[in-house]
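SEQUENCE-TO-STRUCTURE ENTRY
===========================
What this section holds: a protein sequence and its matching fold, both as plain text.
Tokens: labelled as protein backbone structure tokens, with as many entries as the chain has residues.
Question of interest: how does this chain fold, as expressed in backbone structure tokens?
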Amino acid sequence: MAAYTKFTNVETTLLKVNGTDYNTRVAAIEADVSTAQGKITALETKEGKALKYIKVGSVIFAELTSGTAKALALANVPAGSMITQVICQVTDAFNSGSGDTIAVGISGTANKFLATTDITATTVGAYTKAVAYQNDSALTVYATWTGTGTAADAGGFDVYVAYFDL
């Protein structure tokens, strides 16, 4: 617990924390935050290569057929970019009778970015993996969902990609 002293007069109340008045301390914290934000912005825009986050797609259970693996083309990541992170956010837990899986990848490699073991489709949460994937031509990101047993009557997820232009 911080030691404090309260000074009161007719016009103002001043709180001192560990010998420094409150307004001075707040100003110092704000300066530290501003400096940190400036460093982050400088890092992100170094050489004009700002990191971009895009939501490449959303999927809900009504778009899927239980027992059938379904690869859904979500969106394109521009040519000449480096993908650095992929995130799958399960927004509504899937509930097929025997199990549900999700993988995120590209055409021909369903689990290029996130494998079925990286995502728990039956639990709401964000699942992510750092990657380093350079694409020289426009790249379509796919999500593949498989449900087994009785059909799901709940479930949904969003997919995000972080990348920068090369």
